[in-house]
Design goal:
Length: 225
């Protein structure tokens, strides 16, 4: 008999645990090089060992988890050298995707950018303590704002590759949560300037601002490594 196709109920738990585990790694719930124990994780995510193993294997392929023969899974380490490589790739992909989006984007694309920036600014405009209390929300809104900027990119692989690099950079970006309130205010202003340059269809200025924004964040993260 042929192999039975996966049903919705078969596949959804696996996708969900990948998302949740990736989020926990990015936000340092599980810090770099932490051993990932099956007993703890199956209880935390309420999934079977088989589903968890598949999720961990996917995260190995994404670079968030490593597998040591005979020792099991653990969170991938972080390093300055890796961060610099991630940033170089991400800047290249993101600038190309942004330039293509500016060339192709329509009014709906512009409206989405404005809406996502507004949602992000509602948190970034809060006092420092308020923003820290809503940091998990900020992570999601920050991701959606940057995604909206490049959402008119038609290159499937270009968009996929920039998304993979964004996920990796997010893990390092979380380190800057411990940075000063002054740094938070500067990012608030940078997001506004990037949005305005994009809406003005000023590709040179928008891509330049975006690169500076990414690299400055990386430099702050390097200081904490």
């Amino acid at each position: 008999m042929g192999r039975k196709a996966a049903t919705k109920s078969d596949t959804e738990p696996g996708r969900d645990v990948v998302t949740r585990l990736r989020s926990d790694i990015v936000s340092s719930v599980f810090e770099p090089e932490t051993r990932l124990k099956f007993a703890d994780l199956t209880e935390r995510y309420d999934v079977s060992i088989g589903t968890l193993r598949e999720a961990l294997s996917q995260l190995v392929s994404e670079g968030f988890v490593t597998l040591d023969a005979g020792k099991g899974f653990k969170v991938a380490p972080v390093s300055g050298a890796e961060l610099r490589e991630i940033v170089d790739h991400f800047v290249d992909f993101e600038k190309r995707a942004l330039a293509e989006s500016i060339a192709n984007g329509d009014e709906d694309w512009e409206s989405t950018i404005v809406a996502q920036h507004h949602r992000l600014s509602l948190i970034e405009g809060l006092p420092w303590e308020g923003r820290m209390a809503r940091h998990a929300e900020w992570v999601d809104r920050h991701r959606e704002f940057h995604k909206s900027l490049v959402s008119a990119c038609n290159g499937i692989w270009l968009f996929r590759l920039r998304s993979q690099m964004f996920n990796q950079l997010d893990r390092y970006r979380f380190i800057t949560k411990r940075s000063s309130e002054k740094g938070s205010k500067s990012k608030f202003e940078e997001h506004r300037q990037i949005m305005e340059a994009v809406l003005a269809r000023d590709t040179a200025r928008a891509t330049s601002l975006l690169e500076s924004h990414i690299r400055e964040t990386a430099e702050r993260a390097l200081a904490f490594l």
